[in-house]
Design goal:
single chain, Jelly Rolls, globular
Length: 281
């Protein structure tokens, strides 16, 4: 049975190109691709299966999860892995099977650990080019801008991009991250919010200055992927979402925060107008 998308106000996603000017995207793409050539990026997404957020029908796709690999390591391999971390002495080897690493833990992977996991243990990092323009400490604080700001490097290397994000209709921004997918890689279907655990749809804006990233929504194995072919949009992260593979590099930015109430009211008004039946002739 095909599961419907949760969507937003009856639509699978909200096309924001109707209300946000994207005429600068060509300039942003030039700035971003040049900037990425010179900054340090990181890999992410390798523990999504361990975190239990990947779509059930994608769990056995053959791409190895980092925590699965870490749990299966010999003591010697574990020692090599821990030795490449920021604080090897803090890891209790006697309780190694209780320690977690990676996204949303106190022990995020260093670049060297990511490389070892990939080269020796066959781990798949969906996003090998991830860059935080504005960082959050925890997943549940991504909508709060308290005490946060764009990094000095982001403001220096990506000034037009930072200005564009600041112009978006948020009252505060809690996170801004660039997610890049290498040629022939894909991002596995996953969801960020469990349906029923939030009162409303998480407020975020995704935008892709360069066309071609096939971000899609799909809530069951037998459903057709709903590819979002808009340059800027808001989607419901209770829906499973991912990125289809293509033979070239692709990227987009996700901005999380709190929308201006007037912006939400205007979007809802537009959605209701679209849903209104046409007058009888």
């Amino acid at each position: 049975m095909t599961a419907r998308l949760w969507g937003i106000w009856g639509d699978p996603y909200v096309d924001l190109s109707e209300v946000i000017d994207t005429s600068c995207f060509g300039e942003l793409d030039r700035e971003i691709t040049l900037g990425l050539a010179g900054v340090e990026t990181e890999g992410t997404g390798a523990t999504l299966k361990w975190m239990g957020v990947v779509a059930p029908w994608m769990m056995d796709d053959g791409h190895r999860d980092a925590m699965e690999a870490i749990r299966a390591m010999s003591d010697a391999d574990f020692e090599d892995f821990v030795g490449l971390g920021d604080d090897p002495a803090s890891v209790d080897r006697a309780r190694r099977h209780e320690v977690t690493f990676g996204d949303e833990t106190d022990r995020t992977f260093t670049r060297a650990q990511q490389r070892l996991l990939t080269l020796r243990h066959g781990v798949y990092f969906p996003w090998k080019c991830c860059y935080h323009l504005l960082s959050n400490d925890r997943w549940d604080d991504k909508h709060s801008g308290a005490g946060k700001g764009f990094s000095d490097e982001a403001r220096e290397v990506f000034p037009r991009t930072v200005d564009f994000v600041r112009s978006l209709p948020f009252t505060e921004v809690g996170r801004c991250v660039l997610f890049g997918v290498e040629a022939h890689d894909h991002a596995p279907l996953h969801r960020d919010t469990e349906p029923g655990q939030a009162l409303g749809v998480a407020q975020s804006i995704n935008f892709a200055p360069r066309p071609g990233k096939r971000f899609y929504l799909q809530n069951s194995a037998d459903a057709e992927p709903m590819v979002v072919d808009r340059p800027i949009y808001w989607f419901n992260d209770m829906d499973y979402h991912g990125v289809l593979a293509d033979p070239f590099f692709r990227y987009s930015l996700r901005v999380d925060g709190a929308f201006a109430p007037s912006f939400v009211r205007d979007l809802e008004r537009r959605a209701r107008l679209r849903a209104r039946p046409a007058p009888a002739r």
